[in-house]
């Protein structure tokens, strides 16, 4: 008997020490264009033994995008799960979720174990907000490579940015926010003003958040630079030093189109700044990924990335400053842990998915004296989930195969010596309380 709809795109999106977020969609078959959303109930079974799972979530409210957060789990423990919508089991479909060992395919996962030492603070990482964008994806005339917003979704970039800020305030204790570029879609004065208005609703630049420029934020053809006037000047690094002692360095990698560069004057400023205190724990952010590994693995190719010479020079500078432990980037709209090119590199390289498009979220970087724990989150607001359903089909549904990344890309622990930092004094996030 043919099923009345598909329960598909099963994702174990977020895994923390004490919780997990599982999502899926219900829709009609896709023949052309966007598939029809089918609204159904949401059920999730969970247990430490496959044969003894219990129903932990049962919501009869019909919806097309289903997302369940399960709390109260134990760190470092294996759990089994099964997601269903009114009797139909949800199945994974993307390459990252259909690997032999993927949790979505096996139906089991292990909660994270926090790094050793005391909890210090949390940093939020977000990028590719695209304020002013009107279609998501590559716009190639009439070809179905981009997705237009549906009714009441015209301002989806502002809606998603707003929902993220609400999440950070109400759910995650107002962490310092790092915006890794492409904050606007075209760098216009109106878009820049709207982006700044939203960012300052979160707090003060430098005190509550820091931003770098992306290729979409580049100066206008007229020579005007609204982004530079409101955020940071072209090819100028920016920095913040938090009360905990954490140093955050923002690098402008913007050139003139998709690819990027760092000009000699900025390199000198970066080198000088890091060598003032080379052992201070430092988080670096730039819009373009800075490794050959990222350039060669991106579907857009090396021409879309930072030029090769600048990749190597920046990695050498970071290697000489032993406190640099992580370099966060955006641009590719994907979740991915990368690999350094230079021998002896000690920093990790991480690409974060877009805020404005599927999987539409942000990362939380939890710092401990013995390392960090990173999780990717998407907001559970219904208007944001509705846009997730729609933007999933950009580039004929192919782009998301590269965007989601593996469970380990989205959720992982890294051991680092961050003992030079002091605790920020804030409350430990609920998902870290053991």
Automatic annotation (TrEMBL):
It comes from the Bacteria. Pfam families: Metallophos (PF00149). GO terms for molecular function: hydrolase activity. Residues 121-334 form the Calcineurin-like phosphoesterase domain. Coiled coil: none annotated. This is Calcineurin-like phosphoesterase. It comes from Propionibacterium cyclohexanicum. The lineage of its organism: Bacteria, Bacillati, Actinomycetota, Actinomycetes, Propionibacteriales.
